[in-house]
Amino acid sequence: MAELHPDIRRTLVFFRKDDQILLAMKKRGFGAGKWNGVGGKIEAGETIEEALVRESVEEVSMKPLSWKKVAELDFIQDAETDPWHMYVHAYISEEWEGEPTESEEMKPQWYKITDIPYSDMWDDDEFWVPRILAGETVFGNFTFNEHDIMTSHAIRQADF
């Protein structure tokens, strides 16, 4: 794989306890109004893991103590105006410090894994999130149109 421009790299973590997963409602900016895991941009000089911890503390006041990589996801918006591209390293954490706390950016809430609100998430989530929650590791490619609606996807098993 070719080296990716650092500006497109992102982290994403799902905190899991027993039969529940922590999702957070994005309150502003890109993805506002959607439930998602916690994460964001990897800053200059920062490792993926350092970004994972920093973003979790900033967004929901939880510091992951351990995590397992479960996915690499390549998202592209194929639009003529203001297209975006994100390459996301996704993890599950079952050990952390702190309690989920609302921030200016995110409102966290625990959901039973059987009750995940996929209709209020990104279109791609229903295709790969159940797989990682079942213990799989995956690589996915997702393309979106100018209205952020998924137009194509491909997912395959990965070994991390």
How would you summarize this macromolecular structure in one to three sentences?
It is built from 2 helices and 8 strands.
Characterization of this structure:
The protein has 160 residues and is mostly beta strands. It has one domain (6-157): Nucleoside Triphosphate Pyrophosphohydrolase, CATH 3.90.79.10. It is 14% helix and 42% strand. It has two helices and eight strands. It has helices at residues 48-60, 125-133, and strands spanning 9-17, 20-26, 35-36, 63-77, 85-97, 106-112, 138-144, 150-157. Strand 2 and strand 3 (35-36) form a beta hairpin. The two termini are 15 Å apart.
Number of domains: 1
Residue-averaged pLDDT: 93
Known CATH architecture: Alpha-Beta Complex
* Rg value: 15 Å
CATH class: Alpha Beta
Number of strands: 8
Quickly count the helices: 2
Shape: globular
CATH superfamily (homologous) name: Nucleoside Triphosphate Pyrophosphohydrolase
Taken in chain order, the helices and strands follow as: EEEHEEEHEE
Largest sheet: 8 strands, mixed
Helix/strand-derived category reads mainly beta
**Share of residues in strands:** 35-45%
Topology:
Elements: E1 9-17, E2 20-26, E3 35-36, H1 48-60, E4 63-77, E5 85-97, E6 106-112, H2 125-133, E7 138-144, E8 150-157
Parallel strand pairs: 1-5, 4-7
Antiparallel strand pairs: 1-2, 2-3, 2-6, 4-5, 7-8
State the main characteristics:
mainly beta, Nucleoside Triphosphate Pyrophosphohydrolase, 14% helix, 160 residues, 42% strand, eight-stranded mixed beta sheet
